[in-house]
Amino acid sequence: MTAPAPFGPLEFQLVLLRRMADHQPELVEEARQELSASLADMREANRRWQAMVRAPRGRGTLRRYRSVLGEPQLSVRRQVGDLECDALLWPVPLWPGLRFEVLAAPGGAVWNEWLVRAPGAAGPELRDLGDLRPWSCTVDEVARAFAPARPMEGSAPTRWALAITDPGSGRPHVAEFTWGLLQRLLPG
After folding, report:
1. Which alpha helices (H) appear in the chain, and where do they start and end?
2. 166: helix, strand or coil
3. Are 11 and 170 contacting, i.e. CB atoms less than 8 angstroms apart?
4. Which of 51, 63, 76, 134 has CB atoms 3.0–4.6 Å from 59's, for a disulfide?
5. Please, what is the angle between helix 9-20 and helix 39-54, to 10°?
């Protein structure tokens, strides 16, 4: 019996891309080629990831990330409202200015998992809706730039949405994100 192929950072990036392909197929295609991965590689990585997530005796979420991505590049204690948690950050070679962040409770339960700006990396200047280009900014950056932004339920567990207002026209819009990275802007 052949041992399964390793599942590491490359395969994890393919999983991120698979979910983003629904909204940005051209950007995903370019990124997939940059990774020298085929469409079959992306599908297989996603299939294996889903099997790990759904395994009845699988690793817990935090252990799964550590086994796939290794030890985090950075781990910091963070206060979120009344709750204290650990923010663990891993580099993502496709997006050097971003990190994959997992927020975990003191007991290890994962609260959130998404892409964020790397500590010390400059984010984009977001002055108006024209600055909101796919893959250019994160949920946090859009929420700060277009405050008060109203969180909305996303269409899948790895998707988020923010209701924002165009500062020029006052018209409502919805910014949609996958894994915390902006995918598209829709009229609200």
Report:
1. 9-20, 25-34, 39-54, 61-69, 139-145
2. coil
3. no
4. 63
5. 100
Residue 115's closest CA among 132, 127, 103? 103
Locus of tokens 């991965």: 37
Q: In what order do the strands lie in the sheet with 172-178?
A: 150-153, 159-165, 172-178, 181-187
90-99 per-position pLDDT tens digit? 999 999 999 9
**Quick one: which of 54, 25, 36 has its CA closest to 93?**
36
b (16+ CB within 10 A) / e for 56-73: eeeeebbebbbebbeebe
Q: Residue written as tokens 């999983």? A: 15
For 42-63, the pLDDT digits (tens) are 999 999 999 988 887 666 788 8
Burial of 48 (0-12, 13-18, 19+ CB in 10 A): middle
